Amino acid sequence: xxxxxxxxxxxxxxxxxxxxxxxxxxxxxxxxxxxxxxxxxxxxxxxxxxxxxxxxxxxxxxxxxxxxxxxxxxxxxxxxxxxxxxxxxxxxxxxxxxxxxxxxxxxxxxxxxxxxxxxxxxxxxxxxxxxxxxxxxxxxxxxxxxxxxxxxxxxxxxxxxxxxxxxxxxxxxxxxxxxxxxxxxxxxxxxxxxxxxxxxxxxxxxxxxxxxxxxxxxxxxxxxxxxxxxxxxxxxxxxxxxxxxxxxxxxxxxxxxxxxxxxxxxxxxxxxxxxxxxxxxxxxxxxxxxxxxxxxxxxxxxxxxxxxxxxxxxxxxxxxxxxxxxxxxxxxxxxxxxxxxxxxxxxxxxxxxxxxxxxxxxxxxxxxxxxxxxxx
Length: 376
Ligand SMILES: [Zn+2]
What we know:
Elements: E1 10-15, H1 26-30, H2 39-44, H3 50-63, H4 69-92, E2 94-100, H5 111-117, E3 121-127, H6 128-138, H7 142-152, E4 161-166, H8 168-171, H9 181-198, H10 206-223, E5 227-229, E6 261-263, H11 271-280, E7 284-288, H12 291-294, H13 300-310, E8 316-318, H14 326-349, H15 355-373
Helix pairs in contact: 3-4, 4-14, 6-7, 6-9, 9-10, 11-13, 13-14, 14-15
The site of zinc ion has 4 residues, from loops.
């Protein structure tokens, strides 16, 4: 039996808002149990994944209905998104959600709406790349743009944020290199021209992004506010060879030691890299997150074992990375608590730790570390 962690609350330090219009049927629901956007995957394949079968069983138990797709979806429709979200937060024992508002903003609840729905604290994480893109579209030149960017990041806590987040992994990869201002200005010109012409931008200039993300890390150090990095798995957009968190070596230098650097998504499949980095650098934290949903049928316990085995418990944070559908928070919490509980039980059985120590470590991972690191 895994050590029972259900009474320990969760501060979910990286998740997203909920869709106003929830998926109504199994096909719509399956789209949310995969990160791929190719429609034939949800149509033909997701229903044959372990994650799907487990989700239906787990949700049958959660909703008090048969563990069958039709029964689960009927129960979801009957409850509606607001009640589902409330039940998930209460029964999942969530204390706080730190929301990355970087995507889906037209179709999801605003944070104020969310505060009216769920009985937990809601705080905001600002995503850097959409901010950069908006400021480039609005800018008249590099100097003005850079001034506006630095201004936007100059006092993040007063602006209501608890952290920054970068998805540079998706755009140009984690191998950030030092770029000087003159080189960044040269890279800015064609990006700016295209942005002005099109009225929008998806930034993918490596010198420019490297320069701007390092500037954000400098702000993180100055304000001692965390900066989260997407690392490891994601949607098919990313190049899996460029998302090993070890590639962020430039940021682990002494110049940025005051910046709390949070490596997201368990770095999967580079979980060992991530755990190692958290074990080496005092300002680097490892997220036990996202894998609960997408690796739930496979390596989840192994990921938890790697993280707990290599990084001190004080350096591991917990998230679901759930988004859009309330039950994903429930699934993430259930699978995450279970995997941690299994790993702790193994170590208790092996005589490495006693139960009291295991529970203290679980509390650190599930909520205490995040309260400290984000200053909640
Ligand atoms: Zn996320």
